[in-house]
Amino acid sequence: MIQRDLNVPYKKALKASLLGIALMTSAAYGHERWDNSPIHVSIAKAPVQINGQVVDAANNPIAGATVQIKRTPSIGTSTDGTGKFSIAAEPDETLLISATGYKSQEIMLGGRTNLSIILQDSVAMMDEVVVVGYGVQKRASVTGAVASIQADELIKVKTPNVTNMLAGRLPGIRAVQRSGAPGDDGASVDIRGYGSMLVIVDGVQRDFAQVDPNDIESISILKDAAAAVYGFKGSNGVLLVTTKKGTNAKTKVEYNGYYGIQQVTRYPRMMNAYEYASLYNEAIYNANPYTGVPAYSQEQLDSYKSGSQGTDWWDAMVRNNAPQSSHNVSIYGGNDKVKYYNSVGYVDQGGILKSDDWNFKRYNLRSNIDLNVAPNFTVGFKLTGRLQDREKPYGADDLFTQAQMAIPIYNIYANNNPDYWQAIGNMANPIHSSYIDNSGYESRLRREFNGSLDLNWKLPWVSGLSLRAMVAYDYKNSEWKTWQKALSDYQYNQTNEQYTEVALRKKASLESKMENLYMPTQQYSINYNRVFGQKHDVSGLLLWEAYHDRLTDILGFRESSIGIIDDISKGDTENQHTSGKSVETAHAGLVGRFNYAYDRKYLLELNFRYDGSYKFRRDRRWGFFPGVSAGWRISEEKFFKENLSHFDNVKIRGSYAKVGDEGDFSAFQYLDGYVYGGSYVLGTGGLSSGLRSSGMANPWLTWYESNIMNLGFEASFKNGLINTEFDWFRRERSGLPATRQGTFPTTFGESMPQENLNSDINTGFEWTVGHKNKIADFAYNVSANFSVTRIRYGYVERAASTNLYDNWQNNNNDRNKDIRWGKTVLGQFSSYEDILNSPVQDNNGNRSLLPGDLKFKDVNGDGIIDGNDVEPIGHGATPRMYYGLNLGANYKGFDMTLFFQGAAGHDIYISGDILDPFIQQGLGNGFAFMTDRWHRADPSDPNSEWIPGTMPAARVTGQADNRSDNSWSLHKADYLRLKTLEVGYSLPKSWIQSLKIDRCRIYFNANNLLTFTGSDELLKNIDPESNQSRLRYYPQLRTFNLGVNLVL
Amino acid sequence: MKMKYFSPLFVSCALTLSLYSCNDYLDRELTSGVITSDLIWESPQAIQSVLVTMYDEGLRLDEFDDWFTGKSNLLNLTSLSDEATGAYQKDYAFSNANSIYTYSDYVFEDPFASRYVQIRRTNDFLKKLNETAVLSTEEKRVIDAEARWIRAMQYFGLVKRYGGVPLLTVPQEYVPGDFEGLQVPRNKESEVYDFIIAECKAISDILPVSRTAESKYRASKGAALALCSRAALYAGSIAKYGSNANLSGEAVTRGYVGIASSEAMRYFTESYNASKALLDAGTYSLYNKNADKAENFYELFSKSVNGDNGEYIFQKTFNVSAGKGHMWDKMNAPFSYRGDGWGCGVTPTLEMVEAFEYSDGRPGKLALKNTDGTPLSFDSPYDLFAGKDPRLFASIYVPGAPLKGSKVEWIRGVINGQNGSGQKYQAQNQPDKDNVATIDGVRYNTSGKDGGADVGDASKTGFYMRKFFDETLTDMTNIDAKRSETPWVVFRLGEVYLNFAEACVELGGRDAEALQAVNSIRSRAGIQPLEAISVAKVRQERKVELAFEKLRFWDLKRWRVAHLDESQGGLTNYRGTALYPWFNVKSKKFTFETGVPPKQKRLFLERNYYIRISPTDLSTNPQLVQNPGYGN
Q: A690 contacts in B (CB within 8 Å)?
């Protein structure tokens, strides 16, 4: 065992290295094996080097397959990207080859040193297990709508936040990323448009966004009755994250890391000094055709044009390339007694500010250990520690507004003197305040500790019966600090040659907030799983779960006249204040599940949950949520097998469940009384605190119900050459919370409690199709998925309509959700005649209008455009359709992935005061697209002809109607994105073997490389996932990464 | 075999047991923050705490931080009257100078849903107070009267906006499913006023004349009489002048809005009686402690005496150190005296300045020009105002007015000449930006540090408000921090004198009493007494004495003049005029011009006398009838 002997010193060296705790934990468990293993001395024959390649039935190389020596499973290796492996073994050993998704195989060497091994995968794919609620199931026997993805697919999107890896990957998942801000760039994710879903990480309700993606084994989503076992919480679907575990193989050390740069995908340019000043002058003429006096002289315009004066604020604040990097080292392996997966991870995401003061860092530590302490008795420990550190300049979210507002004619410094930052008007100088040293900071430190202990006992007396107990304790601590420094910009006064201070904050202050969250969870269960007479496959689960959250936070605020030390104890006592809160929640439930399969053909699952929530009164607290699903594997039928043998799998399945939800209810609405609130000075005694009625109680409030239906079809042809899956779904909810505030006479004077009143309906479908093949050395795969969701209101509690118009506009009963209302724009006014002959829309005889202004449709034909002329003009900003297209190929050591993702059926508003030529009615700069506007041939000559443009004619304060909600400002944001392009090369085994490296793959990766958004000119400047009508947000990012995956 | 089933059975039993105990596990009521009613009504301290919130949230006071449609739009009762106009650009009435600002149907909207919550709480409080056993009968009697005063204030707040509203005096009981039983029609406008007057009269005999120091800002007998004095006067004017505005429709015929003119004298008499009782009792007196008349009048409203001036009958007091302040100073500080932005909010117009007479009794029109039409020159802009009513200097910062050791500077620009002739260099920017003119090699600032240009946030009229401004406040940082604690005046004896005078002149035959009342005000102000009295003179005195106290707008409404053209004393076509001081480089003197600020002209429609009842209020109650001129 030369190989192992060499390994020992190497590992010892590693142990001493910086890897720290993760490695030490692993070493502690690994020790037993190294020191006590009898194999070491029992080797008689000299081992020889065995080389081989593992491929699938289609002759595609299988990367990452485990190759072990059967007699000594601790000795093993894995295949590289080309499926090749090399292992030292005695000539008469038996090798055990296994890979996820394939049938394991044993190979007797019999003296052979060069092997070609084919693993059967098609049936194996059906044998693959999928994580479902409180357990796993074979894919073949799944009867619910469950989608899952393995980690290696997921992590091709290089971003620290897991939510951004999901879009287009899992049919049914809807994900939109609204911002690229470091640490706050998570996508908003839901399943089938159901609302915020339940997320379970390793069996416990937890956040998943910041789990190190490298530690994830798989992600599953339960979209239908399969979620009913989660009771109250399962009605919006469930997302299950499973982290990696150790395997019965020799210890491996794996490194995954990349370094990359981030760039803004799209963001519109602001006007430069010359454009600004010329347009400003023009705007003055437009508003005052005969009397206007230009604000900027020709001399000034010339200096702006030459660039000798003025600043591109965006460019001065934002860098082109922001770095990001990610590193993860894991050590995993195991034997019959112990299996372990330990890792440390580090992510560093830089922000796009040139100051480099907006950053996110994350440190992860994970240790998943499974022990066989006795026959039939296993103990699992999972410990996770995480530290998230986000820091940004104080008021950083306003920087994008400030850069929009900053007038480009100013220089960065007053009088070009670097001691004095130029004042730019009503907001801070963005360059000045983009530095923490100048403006202070907003920091957020989040520490999370998750621990769980899992005991599993297979009862020796009853075959197939086991008991399990799991307790988990999660602790989260968040620390926010907001340190505002005093901040002043300056104006240079040319008359007295002095600098005038423009104070934005005269005094420093610190707000410090500490939040602690404790979440103990307990689960006790009985599992039964047995096959009778080879045809009757029976399994059952009965589980009791209880969990309880306790959140406390406390906030302190102090001003600091001195303003140097950012510590709460060093501030002024005057104006100090504190606040805080304490919240507790508790839930419990009894879960049951029964599965029966006859001859692997007829599948049935019954499940239920009896669930209780602290939110409701004792007698309304418990709910019973049953689900049923069934499947028929037609491909297992004799007639099918005989006639259509090319089909590996054809299955029809259906499900129905009744689940509840309590998510939208506020707790304790059954209590009648008073709460703290209000204060008044009654006399010399100072301020007295008051009490206010908590409003009317509703003792009957209880969970609302969802009826979830799903019909599915899946088929797989010729060992997966083509496979497809289709799901149709419908969810009907009733008893949704609403108040009768709209039906009680308002003079009744009581704020109404929520009641179970409203209903809604989601319907849609998902479709995936895949194909894979291999032609000589060239293997490729294609898979596409498509999902559509439509959401309708059912009953909506509201006051009786006062008239037909009110009914049309406001009565949402039986109407699609997600409708935008606004004025329909017929076009732009082409001339003064056009303006005068059109309905009055400015409340002033159209006198304030100019050619190029928006011309609205007079919906009710009364000659006046007002609030009664709005009609449906489009949709909301959440897409109704999602699709993904994944193309993969490999050739010898090269591999390539192209992943396209897109969405459709949504509109984004670009409106509000950014549609003023000068943002905020003349206060700020404007977007460069404003220069393509209607204008007079000679702006100063009121008689010159009008030249058309895209935008309306400029006025300093804009034109109110152009800012209103209208169809012209609403843009169809359908998009297709090349989300990921990855090209990798796995170094041939022969090169790296001598370095004792199992696998070494280097890759180049790009995310959000290309975005296509149709012909909308304005949208070419704006990311289609933006939802910020005023574009004051941290833009979405494109990244380029260079990475390496190394396994020792 | 037995053993085989033992374990699952055992676990099942354990599970069943824990299910029962689980209800306790799920009980987290102690963390809900709700204190049940029974605990409240057993504790006098808790009962007082409920009353505290009724004062805080249940009383509708048109006070410092009340802005319609958000504070950045600068719409409040002062800027919407003819006293002032908003300064910043974000103000609705800004710019688009050729368009018109229509008094929005919604601007005063105060939906029933939010007001009746407070009324219900008051009614509920009165009901439960009656049932509690922890207070003595006498204690209950006084607290009951106090809550009824709050309720009368609540109805007064509604009736002056909507006209008649449903009068509910006990909390309605909801019988599940029976919504119709809860749908009550409006009461007549006169019935609501009658209710307020009757309540005030009844409780004025119960409420204490004076209160102990710990309770001195709570309602007293005086507060009840002052409310009666004001409410009855409003009702009287509506009865007398209602026909000046042409309103019609169901709400009029049913008496929901408008009061029969025959009732006018009765209401004026009620007002007269209440005012007289207050004046005769001598509990309160006009504040007159500082020999400097201007400073005396300023002090009356300032933080320095904190409302303890003998003149305030009811006030809302603040306590910044305990966390209750307001933002008046932050919102209204003159440009160079601001802290961290904001400021300059509501700025008086030249019309308001000229409403102040000269202290010798001459009309207040400012003399800007010689008889030959050439501008008059002044060494300082402040000199223009010499001899004006001291209350002008107490209420308004005119250009050149002293403030915090410096002067308020508002200059339109510089003139390369003298006596107003020569090339003009006008301020083009906000004062903190470039405003420079170079004349003969010398650089001049074309703007004052507190304004001059039409753009930016500074005053566009040349004036700022002084009344209520806290000149001692140094820290105005951070817009959200409420650092001001000048008390808000709700009722003061000065107003009662004027209510009294108005009731006298409206009743007729009481001119001597009226004259005496008005002259009490004028002599305290330091201005020549009147020799004769008239309705117009009383109204003129009200305008200057009560400026910015948020009473003017209601006055214009109840006199039914608001819809008239500005030349007839109304709000229609009113824009407000600016006064522009120019610095003449050659003579080193100031000359003046009047100007048109970049504000919209206003349009007050007759229907605006009563605000629109919101669609939600109507749709939930078919019994309600919309006010005249509005659709549903």
A: 49-57
A542–B48 CB contact, under 8 Å: no
**Out of A502, A676, A743, whose CB is closest to B620?**
A743
pLDDT per residue over A744-788, tens digit each? 888 998 877 888 889 999 999 999 999 988 888 898 999 999 999
Using a CB cutoff of 8 Å and minimum separation of 24, what contacts does A414-421 make? A414/A489, A414/A490, A414/A491, A414/A492, A414/A499, A415/A492, A415/A499, A417/A492, A417/A499, A420/A489, A420/A490, A420/A492, A420/A499, A421/A489, A421/A490
**CB-CB: which of A503, A684, A696 is closest to B216?**
A684
Contact between chains at A587 and B33 (C-beta distance less than 8 A): no
For residue range A953-979, list pLDDT tens digits in order. Answer: 998 878 877 888 899 888 899 999 999
Q: Please give the pLDDT value at position A998.
A: 85
User: Chain A neighbours among B 217-256 (CB < 8 Å)?
Assistant: 217-218
How confident is residue B1, by pLDDT bands cut at 50, 70 and 90? very low
Q: Nearest CA to CA, how far is A88 from chain B (Å)? A: 47
Model confidence over A593-621: pLDDT tens digits? 999 999 889 999 999 999 999 998 888 88
The pLDDT, as a whole number, for residue A187 is 87
Chain B contacts of A751, Cβ < 8 Å? Answer: 117
ipTM given for this complex? 0.92
Q: What percentage of residues in chain B have a pLDDT greater than 90?
A: 73
Note whether B217 contacts A676, CB cutoff 8 Å.
no
Residue A582: count of CB within 10 angstroms of its CB: 12
Band of residue A17 on the pLDDT scale cut at 50, 70, 90? very low
pLDDT band, residue A170 (cuts 50/70/90): confident
Instruction: Give one DSSP letter per residue of A629-687, joined into a string.
Output: EEEEEGGGSHHHHHH-TTEEEEEEEEEEEEEEE-TTSPTTTT--EEEEEEEEEEETTEE
pLDDT average, residue stretch B499-521: 97
Of B11, B213, B319, the CB nearest to A526: B11
Q: Which of A506, A574, A803 sits opposite B339 (nearest CB)?
A: A506
Query: Alpha-carbon distance A676 to A694, whole Å?
Result: 9
**Number of alpha helices (DSSP H) and beta strands (DSSP E) in chain A:** 17, 50
Chain B residue at shortest CA distance from A576: B321
Copy the structure tokens of residue B32. Answer: 């809900």
Q: With CB atoms and an 8 Å threshold, state whether A687 touches B323.
A: yes
Given pLDDT bands bounded at 50, 70 and 90, which one contains residue A44? very low
Q: Do A749 and B168 touch (CB under 8 A)?
A: yes
Nearest CA among A258, A226, A234, A21 for reference residue A160: A258
- d(CA A774, CA B348) in angstroms, rounded, equals 84
Among B1, B31, B212, B623, most A C-beta atoms within 10 A, so best to mutate, is B31
State pTM to two decimals. 0.80
Cβ separation A542–B12 shorter than 8 A:
yes
pLDDT in tens, B88-142: 765 444 455 556 788 877 777 777 888 999 999 999 999 999 999 999 999 999 9
Cα–Cα distance measured from residue A383 to residue A406, given in angstroms and rounded to the nearest whole number: 49
Residues 84-113 of B with CB under 8 A from A: 89-90, 94-96, 98-100, 102, 111-113
Dump the DSSP string for B90-149.
TSTTBS-TTSEEE--TTTT---HHHHHHHHHHHHHHHHHHHH-SSS-HHHHHHHHHHHHH
Dist. CA A650–CA A643, nearest whole Å: 13
- % of chain A residues with pLDDT over 90: 48
The pair of structure tokens assigned to A662 is: 């309590």
Residues A683, B40: C-beta atoms closer than 8 Å: no
Alpha-carbon gap: A803 to the closest alpha carbon of chain B (Å) = 8
